[in-house]
Amino acid sequence: MRLKRKIKNNSVPFVVLLIVHALILAFTFYKKRDKIYRKLLLSNIGFAYLFEYFVLNLFQGYTYKPNILKNRELDNILGAVFSQAIYIPIIGTTITAFHLGWKWKLLFTIYFSLIERLFIHWKIFRKRWWETFYTFFFLLLFFNVSDIWHRLLKGKNPIARGITSYLSFTSISVNVLFILSIFSMRFKLGLGMVHTWKEHFIIIPCYSLIISAILLITYKIRFKYSQLLRIFFITILDYLLYRFNVFKNKQTVYLLFPIHLFMFFISNRLFNMIYNQDAGDSEKVIDNV
């Protein structure tokens, strides 16, 4: 009974913030119908994920404890998903969309810093070497980068669109593999992507970065057999990871194959949106990054 109450109490703040920020995003997209803000949100999520990879995955600066998932490592990453895929990117996008100035940026920076202190007090967030001052500094930086990136996307800067495409799909890929890991553990699918969870959350984001590079490059140099080229390169990659004992078993390669096919479809839709290309025109060659 005590354990259930602890799990419930830990998860409530995360869920409340999820609802609040989802409503903020809905309001923002309702008032600002320009599709560029969808691209900006994806960019912000990509930047936040890249930041979190170094601070959390590699150097373990802090730990989340939403107590939603039974596995401690998965639960920690779920907390990071709430923070870096929802809370912070949504506010960054909203600030940019409504052209809010430095006072609002400072206000939201204080808002997130206070949330961090509350989470520490409630013992659902634990710092290691990280400091709240770092949160304050990087949030201010993030909100300003969001404004700059919006201007670049609005000007159809080819480098900005390329980076947005790359990081956006990487974020989607990481989330899909994270969900797959949860289902694999829950239903005992036998997905052995790496040997330990610590290795998993170091290697899998790098794996997603490589996959994203393959998909974006084959999208940009589109020709008759580009889809087959994607399948060839990714199948070779999975096989090599199995042969070098990164993937624990051959079943992993088989399980990932239909996931890759699904991600091919998602990547085309995503890249078409970012490059302002209709699905019906997807066979046309577009300008290179």
Automatic annotation (TrEMBL):
Keywords (A to Z) from UniProt: Membrane, Transmembrane, Transmembrane helix
Transmembrane segments: 12-30, 36-56, 77-98, 132-149, 169-189, 201-219, 225-242, 254-275
Species, as recorded: Metabacillus litoralis
Domain of life: Bacteria
UniProt name for this protein: Uncharacterized protein
